[in-house]
Amino acid sequence: MASSASQIKRAKQLDALAAVLPMGAADRYAKILTDADVATLKHLADAGMGANTLRALASDLAYLEAWCQTATGHPLPWPADPELVLKFIAHHLWDPEQKAIDPAHGMPDEVAEDLWDRKILKVRGPHAPKTISRRLSNWSTLHQWKGVEPPFDHPGIKKALRLAMKASGREPKRKSRKPVTRDILERLLATCSGSKAIDLRDRAILLIAFAAGGRRRSEVATLRHSQISATDPIKLRPADPTSPEVPCVRISLGRTKTTTAGQGAFVFAAGRAAVALHDWIQFAKITSGPIFREIRKDGSIGANPLTPQSVNLILKKRCRIAGLDPADFSAHGLRSGFMTQAGRDGVPLVDAMRQSAHKSVQQAAGYYDEQEHAQSLSVRVGL
User: Fold this and answer.
1) Domain membership flag for residue 267
2) Contact (Cβ atoms closer than 8 angstroms) between residue 33 and residue 65
3) By C-alpha distance, which of 25, 11, 10, 24 is closest to 58?
4) Taking Cα atoms as reference points, which of 66, 61, 108, 83 lies closest to residue 160?
């Protein structure tokens, strides 16, 4: 009874974080997280941590707690000792071929089955190295917020992680199998050329997400009226003195994955994107608050903002209508598509990064490298 009452109390506390936690997660997390964990998450929320970051921290903390309890029979300790971190790495990054020879290799079957049955473990086999890197990074972050020394600088951990990633043999996967380049975008836009609210909204979402540098789905979902301001029209072709002018808007980025609200980062969206955004705002009579909102079944516009997952579902829905396989695309395809298209169009990398707000040259250059590779291949084979 005491345990049940404690879970109910934690669920109510987690409900207060509903804006950043996955939908329906409160009850599930309440069964896994400790009171101290919930207190830490509330503290992070009160401290103004970004919704995306807090969501990832909550998800990874819940996974770590569930794994530790199942694998060791004890709650997650703070601080964790290096041996526990090494066990975590060994349970998640391993060699499938060695597992076939030695069943004790990798995560024990009884641990995997328990986590699988509770719908905590989502993959069979070794995890993606990128996922484990993120969880270890968030584990370290939570140590720091709890005021305890993290063990992750231990040389044995670094060596084990490096070797385990090599042994896992898994190639990192893109967040979107295929980029939403201009040709794909045109097919999606053709599905929302009508005058209904849902068409105007979805058209604005697609164009703004793409043209404003490939904005992340969380940035699109949380875009607010106060972040948008009109600017002077710009020339469609800057070098041509006779070029026609097109409307342009300035979008303040606020807090994103790579920027903070105080940095004053901003991007521009011009032409069709600016027009589509204006048309949606005027149609929906939005003068404050979130820009992209839910549309009810009767076609009326609600006051609640879309969730990041809703943005993803909208893109997949438009893919389906356009005759494209939704499994090939996700909302992140608009971001990778912007950079890929910039590479195809010969836009200098530094200019594309200024608009996309990429911080890593290596990551941004990857899209350009693919284009150069494809082009050089075409020349070699005479296509």
Assistant:
1) yes
2) yes
3) 25
4) 83
| 311 in Cβ contact with 332 (< 8 Å) | no
Q: Residues 68-80: pLDDT tens digits?
A: 999 999 999 999 9
Q: Looking at the structure, tell me whether residues 118 and 142 fall in a common domain.
A: yes
Contacts of 214 (CB under 8 A, 6+ apart): 334, 335, 336, 337, 338, 339, 356
pLDDT at 281 over 60: yes
Query: pTM above the 0.90 mark?
Result: no
Same domain, yes or no: 188 and 162:
no
Name the nearest CA neighbour of 330 among 129, 206, 178. 178
Give the pLDDT score at 259. 52
Our count of domains for the chain comes to 2
Beta carbons within 10 angstroms of residue 201's beta carbon:
24
Task: Give 226-248 as a 3 state SS string.
Answer: HHEEECCCEECCCCCCCCCEECE
Q: Whole domain around residue 9: which residue ranges? A: 2-168
- H/E element holding 294? strand 293-295
* Closest by CA position to 203, among listed 76, 314, 350: 314
Helix extents (H) in 73-178: 82-92, 96-101, 109-117, 129-146, 155-168
Question: What burial letters (b/e) apply to 13-37, b meaning 16+ CB within 10 Å?
Answer: bbeebeebbeeebbebbbebbbeeb
Contact yes or no for 275/267 (Cβ under 8 A): no
Nearby residues of 321 by Cβ (< 8 Å), 6 or more positions away: 191
Asked if 19 and 51 touch (Cβ cutoff 8 Å), the reply is: yes
**Does 14 lie in the same domain as 47?**
yes
